[in-house]
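For homework, think about our next protein:
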Amino acid sequence: MNQKIISFKIPKSHKEFVRFQVDEGKHFYDKLHQHPEWQLTIILEGKGQLMVGDYMGRFEPGEVYLLSANVPHVFRSDEEYFQNSTDKKSVSNTVFFDFEALGKGIWEVEEFLDLRQWVSRIKGCYALTGDTKVKLVKEILGFGTKSGLEKILSALKMIQVIEQSKDMTQLNKLVPVRDYSELEGKRMGNVMAFILAESHRNVHLKEVADVANLSKEAFCRFFKDRTGKTFTGFVNELRIHKSCHLLRETDFSISQIAYQCGFQNLSYFNRAFRKYIQNTPKSYRKQIHFQNQ
């Protein structure tokens, strides 16, 4: 059954500029979603895949991410976090900034003109590292106890740190020229949920086109416009990222990993792995084990 999942409401009062949220459970919210608030998140526990536009990569504890408004994203926890028997946890602290709550008048104040230009320029998802991350982690971890003016000042301090940062790396290369409409968002959310759930098997183009309620030709255009990738290329990249995780974290044979990730042919898996990782699965595993010694 398809779920309509893209539009996501952050629980807050209508005029709240900044909101602090702790997410703690076996796994993070696992559906592609977007919201009008900016999001600053530190991962405290848990691992998985971060998907933002055309970017797909790993998230790990200690990492800090900034997402601007209305950026479709999902922090998809690894499969073991969904198992009923697991004792693993996923924990994150997030600060949401709602610049719209400040009202239009504030952007006409001279002291806020530089901030206005910066807010309009920043689009997408960024990894924050170095001194920037150190300063932000300190503020985020203490933010939950703040209220009133102290809360506002802390929020503005974090924004200032980010605005002045030289430690920001943009993860998504494809920047949407406009926000998703609600219909587009729901359609893309349904597609991503289906791909994430079914990528372990051979998924036919018509299947996923039917999920989007589009013809195969229209779906290919829709998907390429929003991810910068073909459907086949995206699924292969998703499978390769999963295989990298299994090569690092398990003792499964390479052929077991290939089939578990949805590749029906071992030689095709090896070619795809080399294309995306610039290495063979065997060499990649040896390299990881050597680094961990």
Summary: The first helix runs from residue 113 to 121.
